[in-house]
Amino acid sequence: MKKWLKMLGLAVGVSMIISACGGNSDNAGSNSGSGNSGSGQSASTGETKSFEIKAKNWAFEPTEIRVNKGDTVEIKLVNEEGMHEVEIKGYGKKIKDSETITFTADKAGEFEFICSLFCGTGHDDMIGKLIVE
Ligand SMILES: [Cu+2]
């Protein structure tokens, strides 16, 4: 009657060996890009930049967001007055009220962001710019 116990022990042992192989040590190299001298282009990418866009009737604040290509961009939308949504054209991103989105700025250029929720007479004035350098 002890045979099943042996079998059980074997099964546990085998599964432990299998799971031990699953070690995932995939660490992206850490950034050592501290200290900006301001000269030329720094090749360091992968910084995380956080922004908060405040929306009111009828403007965004700030109207310009500047990042470097390769950066991870985090944007939160805060509606201070009225209800607005942000759409970043060319990146296909939308941010709803109180929402935070995160994406990688993998395309360089200037991308307009607008209010994508009709909010009244000044709706068309709600324009900002995402600049990816
Ligand atoms: Cu609007």
SSE order and pairing:
Elements: H1 3-20, E1 48-56, E2 59-61, E3 64-67, E4 72-79, E5 86-88, E6 93-95, E7 100-104, E8 109-115, E9 127-132
Parallel strand pairs: 1-4, 3-9
Antiparallel strand pairs: 1-2, 4-7, 5-6, 5-8, 8-9
The chain binds copper (II) ion (CU).
Describe the structure.
Residues 28-46 have a biased composition (Low complexity). InterPro entries: Cupredoxin, EfeO_Cupredoxin, NosZ/Cyto_c_oxidase_sub2. It is found in: Cell envelope. Its main location: other. Keywords: Copper, Metal-binding, Signal. With 133 residues, the chain is mostly beta strands. It has a domain at 48-132: Immunoglobulin-like (Sandwich), CATH 2.60.40.420. The protein has one helix and nine strands. It has one helix spanning 3-20; strands at residues 48-56, 59-61, 64-67, 72-79, 86-88, 93-95, 100-104, 109-115, 127-132. The protein has a five-stranded mixed sheet with strand order 3-9-8-5-6, with no helix packed on it. A hairpin with a 4-residue loop joins strand 5 and strand 6 (93-95). The longest helix is centred in the N-terminal third of the chain and has 18 residues, at 3-20. The chain is elongated. Residues 21-43 have low confidence and may be disordered. Bound molecules: copper (II) ion (CU). Copper (II) ion binds at residues 84, 115, 117-119, 123, 126. Copper (II) ion binds next to loops.
